[in-house]
Amino acid sequence: MSSSEAAPAPATPLPPQPSLQVVPNIPRRGRALVAARAIKPGEVLLVDSPLLLYPNLDVAADSASSSSSSSYCAHCYRTLPSGGPSFPCLGCSGHARFCSDTCRTLGAACSHTPWVCRALSILHATAPHLPPPLDHHPEALSQAAFLIAAYNLSAISPDGFVDLLSLQGGATPEHAALALHFLVASLSPVPTGPAGFSPELTASLLAKDKMNAFGLMEPATGGTGERRVRAYGIYPKASFFNHDCLPNACRFDYIDGAVVGGRNADIVVRSIHDIPEGREVCLSYFPVNWGYKERQRRLLEDYGFTCECDRCMVEKTWKDEEDELEEEAMDDEEMEGGEAGGEDEGMGGMEDGDFPHAYFFMRYMCQRESCGGTLAPLALSAQSVVSDVMECNVCGRLSRGDDPDTDPGSACLQLEANPILIECGLSSLRDPVMSSLVYVSM
Ligand SMILES: C[S@@+](CC[C@H](N)C(=O)[O-])C[C@H]1O[C@@H](n2cnc3c(N)ncnc32)[C@H](O)[C@@H]1O
Fold first, then answer.
1. Structural domain of residue 127, as residue ranges?
2. Which of 68, 178, 256, 289 has the smallest CB count inside 10 Å?
3. How confident is the model over 201-249, as pLDDT tens digits?
4. 377 within some domain
5. Mutation test residue for ligand 1: of 23, 26, 240, 243, the one with most atoms within 8 Å of CB
6. What's the CA-to-centroid distance between 79 and ligand 1, angstroms?
């Protein structure tokens, strides 16, 4: 280089290229998220903060502890340390408790305002005497808690409420929605935002909740491995993900994790494996090990569509065979007067050749009994190196299982959710990811 040539400008790192595009309307699927470029396994595709959170009150009503106060912070839903300090709400005689004075102050300003506090207190007192048809409605209390949170949002954040209204889902008021509307109306005068308070709005909100709420699970406690939902959240960007019964991404929450900045209720969506540019990125709306009939029933009842994904197209034919087998078994039973074993609707009895998704189940499904979680690699390192450690999005176990011929369960590191590795996973949660959705017009 001669002395007259200008020295090259120091290289400035390129901003991260967005990984997802919002496509506004795919026929029969509505909005969708599509890979804006080739995506590697374990990439953090989205970090989303909740528009609102609300408690799963139906669990509390079921349990013996229904009369005691909740074991989660009423603002951020972190587990409260047993025997440790907690900060009672000053308005409802400590029924609601917080994990810190900061959460108590934030709660009073947004999630646990004086109106929410009063309405939830009355709801707790009313819970044993709900009028019909709510007395036989398994989710009545949680749905009432959702409506309280939603109408509270309409008053404290009209913009947030507009985001909520923009989500998929609408309905005309039917019996249960009307009953919930009048239950909420009876609790305490509802603070109305610009959208008002009406049976039509209530029905529409309930439909949006059904189609878009994410369950945040209780911590895994060993034992049976069965986990219940501690709270539900509405996540506006994550709500754009459509469903696939063999998803290419899955979501994690670290609600009890050591997340800086008070964003422990954020959810993180990571890719499970390579995704080519242009491919739709989908989550599974429930555990991937559910059988065909159960999946179709849930998708139709709660989400209003019939799934035609590749897996369903294959398993649809199994259903007919199963029905035939069931009929044969019933005929045999009638002839022999003996017991006939029923066919498992899931994977039971399948030969490898009948089951083209076998690889997915071996590689990406948690092998821990009764977990049903999906595995994704820990987040890509800063150098974009794909991790060979897989994390389960339900039980949090970490495992190494590159070789599909080995049982990933046997390679399981047997660590409880490892805080160091999870911190590594979270280290790539930079704010730019939040804005990495780009909107395209068709
Ligand atoms: C959480 S929203 C997903 C985003 C939605 N497409 C939108 O436009 O906002 C769930 C709704 O999307 C639609 N949907 C999701 N997955 C689908 C699929 N595999 N096939 C058809 N529709 C689907 C259904 O209407 C479902 O109730």
1. 52-217
2. 68
3. 999 999 999 999 999 988 876 566 567 899 999 999 999 999 999 999 9
4. no
5. 243
6. 32
